[in-house]
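Protocol step 4 of 6: structure prediction from sequence.
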Amino acid sequence: MRLIRVNNYEEVSERAAMMIAAQIQLKPDAVLGLATGSSPVGTYQRLVAWHRAGKLDFSQIKTVNLDEYVGLDGTDPQSYRYFMEDNLFSHVNIAKENTFVPNGKADDPAAECAWYDANMERLGGVDLQLLGIGNNGHIGFNEPADFFTVETHLVDLKESTIQANARFFDSPDDVPRQAVTMGTGGIMKAAKVLLIAAGKEKAELIERAFAGQVTPQIPATILKLHADCTVIYCGD
């Protein structure tokens, strides 16, 4: 594991984007695991800018996203499919049929989860997985628990996660209470993992978590066991 502390969010975004761009250039048909939330926005902005400058080609790239809220379809502005379209997909030359986000409106969530895992296997696995980290140490929507859940699954969101995400909604009452998320097993299967974070609380969490033991009570600590994990973060 490589822990890289930089000066500010701009540096986090630049370094993360450079790693993803390198993956695309080394393997033009790579499978990228993508994340949502505020942390990767700057990274996506740089990837879009480099694409527009003719430096990055997404035409053969495939993507799999970590998670989606239950009850929201892809046209909902608060859905993660919408987020990805708004921040990346609609600005680069990626085919929509090559972008995969869990279906939050699936009639059978269990079947959707099983299909999602099977689809990642069909794609040949994730070459590089981008992650953020929640204030309680969650990655994807893998919340603190008594054990690590390996497969993609339906999860009840912790109150702390709901409150943290309430800033994106009109009211905390509007935040969905469940999500479909890739499990820690799916995350750990990625050939490379890149975790990014910014802010004093996140920086303190990272330094505390990765200095301690691996525990499902802080799900991100499982990344200590990954063979190729890079964490880029700042305290600002």
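Step 5 (inspection) to follow. The CA atoms of residues 200 and 235 lie 4 Å apart.
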